[in-house]
From TrEMBL:
This is 1,3-beta-galactosyl-N-acetylhexosamine phosphorylase. NCBIfam families: 1,3-beta-galactosyl-N-acetylhexosamine phosphorylase. Coiled coil: none annotated. Residues 665-717 form the Lacto-N-biose phosphorylase C-terminal domain. It is an enzyme of class 2 (transferase). It comes from the Bacteria.
Length: 719
C-alpha cells in the first residue's frame, strides 16, 4: 500500500461511476489514500487512474459465478438442517422437511445417500430411530413412531442462494438481479474453477492494487424461513461447510464418522452459547486447516501478480478462525472488518497480520443519508465508543463504505469525519509502536478461550440480543480499559500457571459455554480455581459464574464467591445474611441507579463474611468476599455504561489488592479515561460522552490536576 506520511493517508473511501471530480475533492478533504468499490458499484478506469491512491476491489470466490454454478449444481454449498420437531399422535408420523424453510434458498439434497447421511431422532428419548423405521417420499419423511413422542429429521440440503446477497436483495427490493448460487470449493470442478477464474481476473484487472476477498468459501450460518425472514443466524456457525465430501474426508482422517447430531446439536446448531463438543471442536480444526490451505493458494496467486490480498471479516469467513492456529499460514496482507463498538474493533485489531483496517459507521446508505437526518450523530457515537478500544490496540487503517455520492451531499458530516480521520492519524502516529501501560492482567474464562477472542456472547455481528447484552457490556468495558485481557478455556486453566493473571473473570448464564456448564463438575477445575484465589488471586463472576447444579450447590465456587442461588430446593433454610455495606471502594464512583440488565434472581449470601454491596427483592445483586489471601467480586449483570465500566475497573483493582494504584493515570469522572504508553512522554485523557465535562486527572505518581474536556474530546498531557 502507498507509503504514508504522518499527516495524510491511512483512510479508505468508497467511490462509484460518474463521480470523478467529487471523488478527487473528497480524497483531498479527508486526506484519503485508497478507494474501494461497494455492493452495487464499480470503479471506472478514470478513478482507478488517480495517482498516489491504492485501489481496493472486492472479489467473490464462490458466489457471483452463476455461469459456472448453473452447470455444476452438484457442487453447490450443502448444509445440515433439522426439520421442525413434531409430536406423533399415532404409530405413524409424516414430517414435511421444508415446512418452514425458504424454497428459493433451500433445496433438499437428493443426490447424496440419505440413508447414509441423514438421521431421524426421537426427541423424547434422544435416541436415533432405526433406519428401517422411516422412509423418504419427496419432501416428506414418514416415520414409524411411538405415540406422543416427538421427532425430527436431520437432513442435508443445498443452499442455492448466497445468504448475504439474499439479504441485500430482499432488503433493497432488487429486481431482475440473478440469485448468486454459492459453490463448495471441496468439489473438484469448483476448486479448479476458483483458481483459474481468479488468475484470469488478476490478469484482466491490472489497476487493482489490493484484492479484498469477501471472504473466502463458507458463509456464516444464515438460514431464512418461509416468509424470507431470518430463521436462524450464528455469526460463528459452521452449518454451510458440511457436505458428504467433508464428512467422508473427516472420517478418513480421524477414523470415525460424524453423526448429523454433531451439527444439529438438539436443534441448537452449535450456537456459540452451547458448550462445544469435542467432535465439533475437532471439525472446526479440520475445516479451518482445509480453508487455510485453499485460501493460501488464492493469496499466493494474488502475490504472483504483485498485488496485496486482504480479507473482509464477514460474510463467507467461516473456517477462517483469525485467532486459530492456521490463520497465519494463509499469508494475507491484511484484514478489514466493520467496527460497531470497542468489541468489534478489538476483534479486528488484535488479529496477527500486517494490516488491520476498520470500517466505521455509518455506511453511506439511504437508510441514514436522507433529508432531515444528521448522520454525524451516528458517526460521533461510533467513533467515541471505538476510540477507547483503539487506544488499547490500534488499527492500521480506517475507512467507510457505501455510496460516496450520498455522503457528499452532507457537508457537516464530511467535515466531521475529516476531523475523525485527523484525530485517528494523530493517535496512530503517537502510539502505533508503543505498548499500552496496564494496571492489571485479566483472563476471561469460558469454553472457547483464545479461538473466539473478543467473540464472547456474539450471536449476530453488531446486533443486540436480550440474553447477551448483560455480558456484552462487560466485554465492551474491558475492550478499552487499561488492562491486559487474555482468553482461556478450561483445558488452558488446567495447564496454565494462573499466577500470570491478577484476575480471572467467568461471566455468563448457567449451562452456557460462557459460564462453563458441566466443566464445573470437574473437581480438578474447582481445585485449581479455589487454590488460585486462596493464594492471592482475584476472581470476578458475572451472572451465573461456576453454575452447575451438583453436590448440594448451584455455584460450584460458592465458598469463593460467598454466594449461592436458591433453586427451590432449600427454601426451608433461612437466609439471614442481608445487610448491605454502608460504603465500599468498588462503589465510590457510583452516581446513579446501577444497571444490571436482565440480572439474576434469588442469589443469597451463604454467611456473614460475604460483604453485600447491593440487595434487592430478597436477592444479592453485588457482593465481594475475602477467600484466603484472595478476593472475589460478584455482579448480577453488566450492560455497557460509563458507571458499570468504572465499577468493573474498581472491582479489578480491589480483587487484585491494588486499591492504592487506582489513582495513577486516572480520571475521576466516570465519563473520562486515561491511556498511557511505555516509551511515550505524554498520556491522553478522553471524554467518552456527548457532553462537556470537568474532571480531576491523576498522573503516574498520583499528582492531580483539573481539566475541562469538550464532548468527545481527547487531550494529550506531557509527563
Amino acid at each position: 500500500m502507498t507509503n504514508q506520511n504522518k499527516l495524510w493517508g491511512r483512510l479508505t473511501l468508497p467511490s462509484e461511476e460518474n463521480f470523478y471530480n467529487e471523488t478527487l475533492e473528497m480524497l483531498d478533504k479527508l486526506k484519503a489514500d485508497a478507494i474501494r468499490d461497494s455492493d452495487g458499484t464499480k470503479l471506472p478506469d478514470e478513478i482507478k487512474d488517480i495517482e498516489d491512491v491504492d485501489i481496493y476491489t472486492t472479489y467473490f470466490t464462490v458466489r457471483d459465478i452463476n455461469d459456472f454454478a448453473e452447470k455444476n449444481l452438484d457442487e453447490a454449498i450443502r448444509l445440515y438442517l433439522s426439520s421442525e420437531f413434531k409430536t406423533a399422535t399415532s404409530e405413524s408420523l409424516e414430517i414435511d422437511l421444508l415446512e418452514d424453510y425458504y424454497d428459493e434458498q433451500i433445496k433438499i439434497d437428493y443426490k447424496s445417500d440419505y440413508k447414509k447421511y441423514w438421521e431421524v431422532r426421537d426427541r423424547t428419548t434422544g435416541k436415533v430411530v432405526d433406519i428401517n423405521d422411516w422412509t423418504l417420499d419427496k419432501d416428506k419423511v414418514i416415520i414409524k413412531t411411538i405415540p406422543f413422542h416427538d421427532y425430527s429429521v436431520s437432513f442435508l440440503a443445498f443452499g442455492i442462494w448466497d445468504p448475504t446477497q439474499m439479504y441485500n436483495y430482499i432488503t433493497n427490493d432488487w429486481k431482475d438481479v440473478p440469485h448468486h448460487i454459492p459453490m463448495d470449493v471441496r468439489g473438484e470442478k469448483t476448486s479448479k474453477y476458483v483458481e483459474e477464474a481468479l488468475e484470469k481476473w488478476l490478469i484482466e484487472n491490472p489497476k487493482t492494487d489490493i484484492v479484498r476477498f469477501t471472504t473466502f468459501f463458507y458463509h456464516f450460518t444464515l438460514v431464512f424461513n418461509k416468509e424470507a425472514k431470518e430463521k436462524y443466524v450464528d455469526w460463528f456457525g459452521y452449518l454451510h461447510t458440511v457436505s458428504p465430501n467433508a464428512l467422508d474426508k473427516f472420517e478418513a482422517q480421524y477414523g470415525y464418522r460424524l453423526s448429523p447430531e454433531v451439527f444439529i446439536d438438539e436443534g441448537y446448531y452449535n450456537s456459540m452459547y452451547r458448550k462445544p463438543s469435542k467432535e465439533f471442536l475437532t471439525y472446526i480444526d479440520f475445516e479451518s486447516k482445509f480453508v487455510a490451505e485453499r485460501a493460501k493458494r488464492l493469496v499466493d496467486l494474488v502475490h504472483k501478480y504483485n498485488k496485496k490480498a486482504v480479507m473482509f471479516l464477514g460474510d463467507s469467513w467461516i473456517g477462517i478462525e483469525p485467532f486459530g492456529k492456521y490463520f497465519k499460514e494463509i499469508g494475507l496482507d491484511g484484514v478489514v472488518g466493520s467496527v460497531g463498538d470497542g468489541i468489534t474493533l478489538r476483534l479486528i485489531s488484535d488479529i496477527d497480520t500486517q494490516m488491520k483496517e476498520g470500517r466505521f459507521l455509518p455506511y453511506f446508505f439511504p437508510d441514514t443519508f436522507y433529508e432531515g437526518n444528521d448522520p454525524s450523530i451516528e458517526a460521533r457515537d461510533n467513533w467515541i465508543k471505538a476510540r477507547r478500544a483503539l487506544l488499547r490496540s490500534p488499527l492500521d487503517r480506517i475507512g467507510y463504505g457505501g455510496y460516496l455520492s450520498l455522503a457528499y451531499k452532507f457537508k457537516d458530516f464530511t467535515d466531521y469525519i475529516a476531523n475523525i480521520a485527523d484525530e485517528y492519524r494523530l493517535i496512530y502516529n503517537k502510539i502505533s509502536e508503543k505498548i499500552p501501560k496496564v494496571s492489571a492482567k485479566v483472563a476471561i474464562l469460558n469454553s472457547w478461550g483464545e479461538i473466539r477472542r473478543w467473540g464472547s456472547h456474539i450471536v449476530a455481528h453488531g446486533k443486540r440480543f436480550k440474553l447477551a447484552y448483560s455480558y456484552m457490556g462487560l466485554m465492551e468495558a474491558l475492550s478499552g480499559m487499561d488492562v491486559d485481557v487474555s482468553f482461556i478455556n478450561f483445558d488452558d486453566l488446567k495447564e496454565k500457571d494462573l499466577n500470570e493473571f491478577d484476575v480471572i473473570i467467568n461471566a455468563g448464564d448457567a449451562y452456557t459455554a460462557f459460564s462453563g456448564a458441566d466443566y464445573f463438575s470437574d473437581s480438578k477445575i474447582i481445585e485449581k480455581l479455589r487454590s488460585y484465589v486462596y493464594n492471592g488471586g482475584g476472581f470476578i463472576g458475572v451472572g451465573d459464574p461456576s453454575a452447575y447444579q451438583k453436590n448440594g450447590k448451584f455455584f460450584q465456587l460458592r465458598d469463593v464467591l460467598g454466594l449461592d442461588v436458591e433453586c427451590g430446593f432449600s427454601q426451608g433454610r433461612n437466609k439471614y445474611f442481608t445487610k448491605v455495606e454502608d460504603s465500599h471502594f468498588i462503589l465510590e464512583d457510583v452516581i446513579g441507579k446501577i444497571d444490571y440488565g436482565e440480572g439474576k434472581e434469588n442469589v443469597y449470601a451463604i454467611d456473614k463474611d460475604t460483604r453485600i454491596l447491593d440487595y434487592y427483592n430478597e436477592g444479592v445483586r453485588m457482593a465481594t468476599r475475602d477467600y484466603g489471601k484472595g478476593r472475589s467480586f460478584y455482579m448480577a449483570g453488566c450492560p455497557y455504561s460509563f458507571q458499570n465500566t468504572r465499577i468493573i475497573k474498581r472491582a479489578i483493582m480491589y480483587v487484585s489488592h491494588k486499591e492504592d494504584e487506582l489513582k495513577k493515570y486516572f480520571a475521576e469522572s466516570i465519563y473520562a479515561e486515561v491511556a498511557a504508553f511505555k516509551g511515550l512522554d505524554e498520556y491522553c485523557i478522553i471524554n467518552n460522552s456527548n457532553k462537556d465535562i470537568e474532571t480531576k486527572v491523576y498522573d503516574k505518581d498520583g499528582n492531580v490536576k483539573d481539566l475541562s474536556l469538550r464532548l468527545g474530546e481527547i487531550k494529550w498531557i506531557k509527563e
